[in-house]
Amino acid sequence: MQDYLIYNTLTDFVLPDAFHKDYHIHLLCKSGKMSFFCGGKAFKATAGDFLIWQMTTEFADISYSDDFDATLLMISNPFLRRHNPEMIWATKGYMYIKEHPVFRLDRDELEIIETDFRQFYQRIRTPGSLFGEEIVGSLLAILLYDMWNIYSREIEKAEIEDITSRRFLRFLMSVQENCREQREVAWYARELGLAPKYLSGISKSITGRPAGDWIDSYAAHELQKLLSDQRLTLTDIVDAMHFSSQPALTRYMKRVMHTTPSEFRQKTK
Known about the structure:
By secondary structure, this protein is an alpha+beta fold. The protein starts with a strand and ends with a helix. It has helices spanning about 75-85, 85-100, 105-125, 130-160, 165-180, 185-190, 195-205, 210-230, 235-240, 245-255, 260-265, and strands at about 5-10, 25-30, 35-40, 40-45, 50-55, 60-65, 70-75, 100-105. Strand 3 (about 35-40) and strand 4 form a beta hairpin. The chain folds into 2 domains: about 5-160, Jelly Rolls (Sandwich); about 165-265, Arc Repressor Mutant, subunit A, CATH 1.10.10.60. The strands form 2 sheets. Strands 1-7-2-5-8 form a 5-stranded antiparallel sheet. A 3-stranded antiparallel sheet has the order 4-3-6, with no helix packed on it. The model has no long low-confidence stretch (mean pLDDT about 90).
């Protein structure tokens, strides 16, 4: 399976429901309309709408008009994890989009997203670049920053209205601050005055992922930054991440990132 794909519904004869089990789908509607049900609610997308289908979300009763014209950018989950530039906003966006998969863009926002999609189309449809993954990964980071900026006003409103979301975000902010030293769910639950089982239940209900998975994601993000700095030795990184030894670091990376420190550095030279 490829890490990223980009298609047009009319010229490539492709529709999003054929892919949403395997990819996170970002759809920019140009004309026509589509409709679907998600979480018991009816949604529709028309010209000027930006739609995101998260891979873990279930959709039903999907229909399209004959003139439905949209660009589909599809990103695999592993690629998204490798190139996600920021974790707190990623989670804010995840929670908001889960309930609001369709977002209406104003003229300026539409121009920004159209520009991002054109860049993707040019790079993905012109293969053979020596640094193809790195280039597309950088474009993905730009798109994500643009999305979060556009969604920010609505995301902030949603946070105020949802106590459970605020608790979960407090957990993530604590993880962001402490994951170099603490990587156990029980420690974060104790810091937040919550039972570990309750914290895990919040994480699972909001994101479909256990709390420990989020801790590992943040720690992996920190490890990637440290390992990308060639000035740091592995001993420096062991100390920075509070591992007991280099073998302990290697075991953790094999479990969480499916690679070793040396293999990661070789790939990113």
